[in-house]
Amino acid sequence: MKKSKNRLAYWFDNQMAKGTPALIKLLSVVTAVTVLVVGFLVGLTGYGIGESVFISLTHIIDPGTVGGDDIANPLFVAAMFVVTFLGILLTSTLTGIICNAIDEKVQDLRRGKSMVVEEGHVIVLGTADGLYTIVSELIEANSNHPREALVIMDNKDPKDVMDDKINTRFPNKKTTQIICRCGSITDINDLRVCSFDTCMSVIINAESDATTLKSILVVTSLLKECGNHNAYITAVIRDEQNKEAAELAGEGYVEILSYEDVMCRIVAHTGRYTGLSLVYTDLFDMAGSEFYIEEHPKAVGKTLSELNRYFPVSMVAGFVTEKGEVLLNPKPEYTAQPGDRVILFAEDDGESHMDPAPAPIREETIVREYKKEPPAKTDMLILGYSEKLKRILIEEDHYIAPGSTMTVALPEEQAFRRKALDGLKFENITMNVVECDIYDRDELEKIIEPKMRVLVLADEEEGMDEEAAQAKDAKILMLLLQLRYLSETKGYKLNVTSEMLRVENQEVAQYANVNDFVVSKNLTSLIVTQICQARELKQIFQELLREDGSEVYVRPARNYVVTGRKTDIYTACEAASRQREVLIGYRTMNPETDEMEIVTNPPKDREIVFGEHDSFVVIALD
After folding, report:
1. What is the pTM of this model?
2. Which of 527, 573, 594, 595 satisfies CB 3.0 to 4.6 Å to 590 for a cystine?
3. What's the rounded mean pLDDT across residues 8-35?
């Protein structure tokens, strides 16, 4: 008997554990059995079976029905009281179950566990430093589309906290719906709610390379499982040794950026010319003009030079072939083939169009003899140490003239880093290492020259916590303010590039207007966001940043057009094309006030008179 009771209790516990659907099913069975049994008993009092079942059902549903019963039949009254009492119990239980189910659903929604039902959305996994940059760029990229969705998943904060942070940071999301979900970015079951079968692309924004690698493995498995072969993953690897492992884990679904590689190349490029940092910012972010890859069937049979006369509001920079090969600044004789897409430097996607006829060229303003500027000697002061310093110096060595001087100033706490710099050999660089208190204004003034490139580095150590990172950034901000003081009081003309460990501190440095360019994880976040919109953009950015590719240069306008005479941008594009270069903008300079203006992707019908101190911003091989 006891064993039977235990089995019954065990069976009941199992039914309860199955959740709301099982409980409702159990209550339905109990209700049906009760109605039938009581209906049969009522039928013994003289009612028909059908009528008695109906009477039983009305009493179990509505307890108030018992008030109208015929009290002359004691058996009938007793049966109705029993069924009414059971009805009260069953109805109360059912109400409780339904309320509990609703509460569980609400809690589930708050935990961010519900399924996402979207199509063509971008999924961001991880809320590491740089998330707000990614979100901001995607909002801007989606602004000319009627409705887009962005799904963010992490388990660092509850869903309601994630929602509050996003809503506070981005009160105006324009046309983008931001959906937050809570879960581990390396747990395949948690990730299933993000709808990988219908997503457009995935950005992995993890704290460490180990988490990034594991997340790539899981996401690749999900994309293969659901058959979404058009979607792809974009991620940043901090240690370049892990890049090959990440590409192997992605099985062709992943585009990997090396943080160290990108940062070193950008630092080396942006310091070469005044204002070039503004050009790179325009290239990488979604504000202003960006690269777009579009289909224009009427481009077939035309060279890049010819096409620039057909597009009035965008610059033609190259082609993507039918096989996916990127031809940035191709050979002058290359003509667009059927299936080729056009690489456009434009304000927004969909805004570029071809005119029915080519624009005229002002041949009289094009310079016939091109004078290539030789590399210039560079005096550069590097304040502080970073693990990227050696790579930066190697990059710099490719672009500067022989005899250029690099002075590395190490504070006392970094003096032991001198050993890592001893013995380095370069073709064009003469390197000096000095030890001094770089945070002391008097010491700083002793090693700085009135006209100098200055690079401020942040020493990011493995496993460094948030407090230590903030402290290092605070010291860099102090150093930048000292440089600003020297510039304003001594009249120094410094070209300053600095590194920041945290994105929010980069914004502080920019607001303070203390230097020309700030390098941080923000830059890789910008590039990652662009690549997630069009996969071929990675090849374009790689081409722009590698030393033997088509890179961005700022060259004198007098090399292309006759200065002092009115011309237009159509003609400027043609003049650059004849040197196998792609014009993407220009720089004007006032020699008296040193006021500078960088204009990228100007309207091609704009008439302009270039002066001796003005320059073209071009994409060129060297």
Report:
1. 0.78
2. 595
3. 68
